[in-house]
Amino acid sequence: MTLLPLSINARRLVCCTGLLAALLTACSTSAPKTISQAPATSNQFDDTTLHTIAIAQDERNTAVLLPYLTNPEARYRKAAALALASVQDKAATAGLQVLLQDNEAAVRQAAAYALGQTGDSTAVLPLSTRIMGPTAVPVEQRYLYEALGRCATSATLRHLLRSIPSTDTAAAAGQAWGLLRAGNRGVTSEAAVARAVALLDQKQPLGARQGAAFTLARTPRLDLTLYQDALTTATTDPNAVVRASATTALGKVKSPSIAPVLVGLIRRDPDYRVRVSALRALNASLYAPAKEAAWEAITDPSSQVALTAAEFFLNNASGEAGTLFLEKANKLAAWRVRTTLLAAALKLGGAERSAIQTAIQQRYATATNPYEKGYLLKALGEAPSAYEFVEQATFTKGQPLVVGSYGMEALVAMRRLPDFPTAQEAAFALTIRRAIGYGDVTIMGTAAEALRDPKLQLGRILPNPDFIVEAQNKLTLPRDVEAWQALQQTLDYLQNKPATPTPVAKAASHPINWATVRTIPVGQRVLLTTNKGNVTMELYVNEAPGSVASFVELVRQGFYNGKTFHRVVPNFVAQGGCPRGDGSGSTDYNLRSELADLRYVEGAVGLASAGKDTESCQWFITHTATPHLDGRYTIFAQVVQGMEVVHSLDISDKIVRLELVK
């Protein structure tokens, strides 16, 4: 399952906000390395009313939840509002709007959060009215602004941009995060961008600076050339999260004068996440002034920086001999960095391209790590002349599944190259047909994506979709939901039909095991032992009972022991728990999304999914704050010790074991 649509190995994907201090500082993004163990207490579901509300949430039963919005007990009104934040039914909008005037601040905050999760544009005026009215608790403004950002349209964005007194730091932070929520949805304006830039000023509170930096980094299609000076200043912010996001935003400045700033950050910033952001902000036009710094970064102490530097060369190098990259690669011990440089060598090619291809194929023959073998096939995806070699490797029986997954991705990448031989297009179409009928869910999913790529025009060679239907009928739901989605989307495309809804498993097919929930106290911890060291996580049973119960049952079964981290994206996530090892594996059941009032700070532990209510066994840990995941992916735990280990993880690292600890 995916967090974001990156590559095939990205499949299956990313602090509690009730605390005033946490919210006003954007919920500090640095997870503590050590937190003392508090005495464990029973969870909240001994309360029969809270238990009933949780069941209704899991069953997506709006009708049962709505009466609780008017319950005399504030805790039940709050619980019902938060339950509706997961249900996301616009039928609840009117009832939630009433709660914006509740006597209890916690209830008002929960109602605002739920309205934002529902995303109903009719809530804009009530939210805006409440912002303008008296606010009992400063932090409430954060909830109101964020909800407004999630509901605003281009026509109503002005409500988010009201003038704020310079002394109102709570409103400034709220406005910044509201702009982020709107920007994540592509809702922005010149005035919104200018306001976000103004909120980067170091006189603003940390929460405002973080929200503004995220807004500028994450809002799509911005040209920030006019704001270069402000962004450059923000890269000196004392907070690393602000610096990293401001650095990402610098990548939207269309001027060669940013090169020295980015080079300086690559060489000198003490936080590896800023160095990663600086490398990613570079583009082909900045290759010449930045390449020496990128070569230095290849041997950075952080493997994540080194990998990002190698990716910079793969994406942007030009006018160089491929043999230069081959020589550099052969001196490196880190296989992921090495294979990425080998891909750059093959892409640049030159007179020695054939020799480079042979060297990569020889490495493939001697490699023992299946992930390295997969990456070597991915590198060969830069050369159509390697087609037969990669095809044979992809469909070899009895090998680790991950090898075939990467191989199929490489074959599709070859086909997209401008120098792919025209005479071989028909053969590629037959490979696609073979892949869809092959029976491997990742291989068929990748092939289905290629089949609906309009640039490849495979439909004219394979006009009869019966073989896709036949393959889809052999899948088992909900386990194979992602492959089912890929095939169905291709069928809809080929037949020019509207998108078919994904068949999401209902709660009745796998209800929450409340007997297990009752055994999990608040504060329950889990020890993750990896080959790089230990990580301790604290479970959020009150906020995500179904997810925590499933996770605990799998831990008790030893399900995760011996599995790998199959996906590690620098300055984003480390993801593991896939039974296949390539990101397409699942259990035989799905869970419902539990989108509690929690935030993706550094060290947040979330469940991967292929869409709402399709969670299963895969989970990920964030390297930094990733607010674009807030309210979209279940958070069920938080790292409380061992973040230095999380930052060191790479693809193929082992989950030695997971165990519950006191």
Automatic annotation (TrEMBL):
<dbReference type="InterPro" id="IPR016024">
    <property type="entry name" value="ARM-type_fold"/>
</dbReference>
<dbReference type="InterPro" id="IPR011989">
    <property type="entry name" value="ARM-like"/>
</dbReference>
<dbReference type="Pfam" id="PF13646">
    <property type="entry name" value="HEAT_2"/>
</dbReference>
<dbReference type="InterPro" id="IPR004155">
    <property type="entry name" value="PBS_lyase_HEAT"/>
</dbReference>
<feature type="signal peptide">
    <location>
        <begin position="1"/>
        <end position="21"/>
    </location>
</feature>
<dbReference type="InterPro" id="IPR029000">
    <property type="entry name" value="Cyclophilin-like_dom_sf"/>
</dbReference>
<dbReference type="InterPro" id="IPR002130">
    <property type="entry name" value="Cyclophilin-type_PPIase_dom"/>
</dbReference>
<feature type="domain" description="PPIase cyclophilin-type">
    <location>
        <begin position="533"/>
        <end position="650"/>
    </location>
</feature>
<dbReference type="Pfam" id="PF00160">
    <property type="entry name" value="Pro_isomerase"/>
</dbReference>
<keyword id="KW-0697">Rotamase</keyword>
<dbReference type="InterPro" id="IPR044666">
    <property type="entry name" value="Cyclophilin_A-like"/>
</dbReference>
<keyword id="KW-0413">Isomerase</keyword>
<keyword id="KW-0732">Signal</keyword>
<protein>
    <recommendedName>
        <fullName>peptidylprolyl isomerase</fullName>
        <ecNumber>5.2.1.8</ecNumber>
    </recommendedName>
</protein>
<dbReference type="GO" id="GO:0003755">
    <property type="term" value="F:peptidyl-prolyl cis-trans isomerase activity"/>
</dbReference>
